[in-house]
Specification:
Elements (H helix, E strand, L loop, with lengths): L35 E6 L2 E6 L2 E4 L11 E9 L4 E4 L14 E3 L28 E2 L5 E2 L3 E10 L12 E6 L3 H13 L7 E7 L8 E8 L2 H11 L2 H7 L15 H9 L57 H13 L2
Parallel strand pairs: 1-10
Antiparallel strand pairs: 1-2, 2-3, 4-9, 4-11, 5-6, 5-9, 7-8, 9-10, 11-12
Helix pairs in contact: 4-5
């Protein structure tokens, strides 16, 4: 994969006319690029990026790699959850039926939500799944999202920079213990190179973590810069690779139109017309009404000027309710 963006050598200085002006970049505004995913099938590491997937092989060509060497830029502060109705097929890239990136509620893009909260979801309860070994488990799998980059190429420009690695439920204790051990020795987990391998004693993919070396000052500066990038925020989902593309923001004009495009309120009933006073007279029999002739419709009285009143249920004015609707549509 090559980078089609080129800038000639000796490009020259920027014009002095732009001196003192901030370097603005509207070209990237609103554009969200995808990120690579470090995955595994069985105990074989793989890398998926822009629809292409390839296995990670040993440098000497002797089969697939058993380990990867990375820097963990940042990890999500919560455990995410994924549920497949028919069970997860190893190596599949299909979107789950229900998932949660915050571990509390299903994501809005989940196509088959099972419950309004993860805590009350029957798929998240122990015993909702039985493993092939006959052990009780959960049908909804826990994992922790982490943003990683290769130790040998921290910028990783060929694969878009930070990549997603999901640490499975069976490896979460090992991840926590590794971080605690580093912290006790005075090392932040993002300040060292990490080797992640598969535990040979287990039949299923279980991660093992080992420190390789501390980062150099140059590598450390690159890590700090990338930690604050939008790419890391999207990976920690903070975003999800299963989410549908974001819709364009709603303009205020469109929001106003949506608010006012409501069924018109019924017109006020016409005011009754008072009869002219007449002198008292003997009561005579009412003439027989001719139902074939429709009486003339009285001209309705002019509609009164609108009066802003408070909503009896909420105690808010029409202006307040209008602002609330606009805020909901604009995402404010």
């Amino acid at each position: 994969m090559t980078n089609a963006i080129t800038i000639p050598a000796g490009f020259g200085p920027v014009s002095s006319v732009f001196a003192g002006r901030p370097v603005e970049n509207d070209l990237s505004a609103g554009v969200q690029t995808g990120f690579a995913i470090v995955g595994y099938r069985g105990k074989v590491w793989s890398l998926r990026y822009r629809g292409d997937e390839r296995q990670l092989m040993r440098d000497d060509g002797d089969g697939p790699r058993n380990s990867i060497e990375v820097v963990i830029l940042k990890a999500a502060s919560v455990v995410s959850k994924v549920w497949y109705k028919d069970g997860f097929t190893e190596g599949s890239n299909a979107a789950p039926d229900c998932f949660s990136t915050n571990g509390l509620t299903p994501d809005a893009q989940s196509r088959n939500k099972q419950c309004n909260t993860c805590a009350a979801c029957p798929m998240n309860a122990w015993g909702s799944r039985v493993t092939p070994a006959g052990k009780a488990g959960k049908a909804c799998s826990d994992s922790k999202r982490a943003a990683v980059v290769p130790l040998g190429d921290i910028r990783n420009e060929v694969y878009g920079g930070p990549m997603l690695l999901r640490v499975p439920a069976a490896s979460l204790n090992e991840l926590a213990q590794f971080g605690n051990k580093l912290a006790s020795l005075g090392y932040p987990y993002y300040g060292v190179g990490v080797r992640i391998s598969f535990d040979a004693a287990e039949a299923y993919p279980k991660f093992q973590f080992g420190a390789i070396r501390p980062l150099s000052d140059e590598e450390a500066r690159a890590v700090i810069e990338m930690q604050n990038s939008g790419a890391v925020s999207r990976i920690l989902a903070e975003g999800s690779e299963h989410a549908a593309p974001e819709q364009a923001p709603v303009s205020r004009e469109a929001a106003l139109q949506a608010v006012f495009e409501q069924p018109p309120a019924p017109a006020p009933a016409p005011a009754p017309v008072a009869a002219a006073p007449v002198a008292a007279a003997p009561v005579a029999a009412a003439p027989k009404r001719d139902y074939k002739k429709r009486p003339a419709t009285p001209t309705p009285a002019p509609a009164p000027e609108p009066v802003i009143t408070e909503n009896a249920a909420t105690g808010s004015s029409f202006d307040d309710e209008l602002d609330s609707q606009l805020d909901a549509l604009l995402g404010d």
